[in-house]
Fold these 2 entries.
Entry 1:
Amino acid sequence: MKKHVIYLASLLLPATIMAQKVTFEEYDLNNGLHVVLHQDNSAPVVTTSVMYHVGAKDENPERTGFAHFFEHLLFEGTKNIGKGKWFEIVTSNGGSNNANTTDDRTYYYEVFPSNNLEVGLWMESERMMHPVIDQKGVDTQNEVVKEEKRLRVDNQPYGSFLAEIKKLLFTKHPYRWATIGSMDHLDAATLEEFQAFNKKYYVPNNAVLVVAGDIDVVKTKKMIQDYFGPIPKQAEVTRVAIKEAPITKEIKGKYNDPNIQIPAIVSAYRTPSMKTREAYVLNMISTVLSDGKSSRLYKKLVDDKKMALQVGAFNVSQEDYGMYLTYGLPLGDTKLEDLVKEIDEEIVKIQTELISEREYEKLQNKYENQFVNSNASIEGIANSLARYYMLFGDTNLINTEIDIYKSITREEIRDIAKKYLNPNQRVLLEYLPKEEKNKEKS
């Protein structure tokens, strides 16, 4: 009921009135584990989460898929949690849990009734200190990951478009491969390679622990020290910054997807790190172009001209580089090149004309509401606290990020579009149905 009341109020009142500061405390254990605590005693629920600074970009190019594989593997069991018992323990204590992996980080979390906080802390400390990485577990999860790839990529319409874009957009940086990686690489890996990957990255000094919700701070700190304090610090993870040369000429590509009947056209531009102000501006540009049915691209190409079944633009924010993408699925006899021309026209308008005061006001309202909603749940707050610390180096962005959006001007929107969204700086991918072989001529 509480969530519904908050949501209704956010519709009726200005977002700035509803936005409340998220209070938190952060500190480091002697082993390098960073800890963030957020106390909210309004409901008897607590989230325990650990984010590791390891993602697909940290993999050996000949062993892609390791980070995503470990997302699964580290649920197999530990020295004190039997094989297959992880989920049983969580559910029997009234909890739920999940994990996810990106190119930049891996995130594990549990949600428990607050009287079972200690269970969550014990389980995450077990995952960090005592994981059992043996051949049986590797073989089991290998099959799980293969099935996931079949469902989400191989047999999913348009399931490979991002992977194909990344291959063309990046030539040196490890963002060039898909997060799910190569099944051949996983098959070829030895048990010792998996164990070495774990020892290097899933360590306290490469992680942040967030505890958010109905907690007693003093008691929680003691439990954290008891469970995580004894875990030994490991060698610091060192990363080499890999730079890409600027794209100065349009890169064209084609890909045939056996799962589709309607082609798509995708433009992709390499953009700066999520930590830059420019990345925030690019988020706003994508909102102007394609957020909702009143957005420029949807209104023009779907509603008015009826040239597209679907059209959009979005900014993929990542730690080292971003990707700004536009896409369109043609309607009827519309040609892909005509869709590109129409989308480009709308980008040129943003590059040469200031968005209207009304559009600017709508933008600000959307981002304020988005900011309020992102902090409306304990799970969301825990995730944000971990992400802002780990990837931005500023945990307090959970409170101040909205100020960045509010300070962005219409002139900046025009100038950043002009700087990054030009045809000579992009990949243009024709995403096509699979060609019929030996098709008879009529």
Entry 2:
Amino acid sequence: MSPGEFGLMHGYMQIPELKAVCKRYGVSINEYLVSVFVWSVYQECMHKMPAKRPIRVAVPVNLRPYFNSITTKNFFVMVSAEFAPMKEDYTFEEIVGAVKFSLESQINKENLEKLFSYNVSNEKMFVARAVPLVFKNLAMRIIYTQSALANTTTITNIGNLSVDEIYKPYVEMFHSCLAMSKGQHIKGNICSYRDTLVFTFSYDIVDASVQRCFFRKIAADGVCVEIDSNGVNYE
């Protein structure tokens, strides 16, 4: 990969197989895939050793189901799945447990309402509304950068997509990817169509060991994974 190139790697999986694996671990598909990413970073980047900084995955949460909303505008908040390696050689089951606890403690209506209310209260502050737009944009850029640097990566799940019956013969699959942000050189995006889920890595780093470890772990758990990419890692 040359500097500045944008890598994409897609992993296609059958949802029934994924559900069977997730049932075995007692987690949702989202929790499982985030856990596999954390496991891959722990294996390939930390080499199973303790670290001063945790692995932190930013996860957007759709607020519509929690607040009975049908708005088409962005309506979400961010939470972070966190795993802090304090000892050597954690098992995958231990990482799954840490990720599940971290997400479940944050993704509940009471906590989401607090996050949502805090964001709205900031927008309604009279002092903030009086600030010129140019300064607001600068402040938002600084806040966004600090948030990005606080997380190892971002993994978002846009859910199961559907099309009208008349278009189904012409649609094979959907793909979606996230752009890079400061301090986050690899990100993940999840979407599904019919019985196929695709996990897409977007990245601007040469080493693809995390991606390989990620898909190998899922395959080792019993899910058939088909890999495709835009070829930037090929020699």
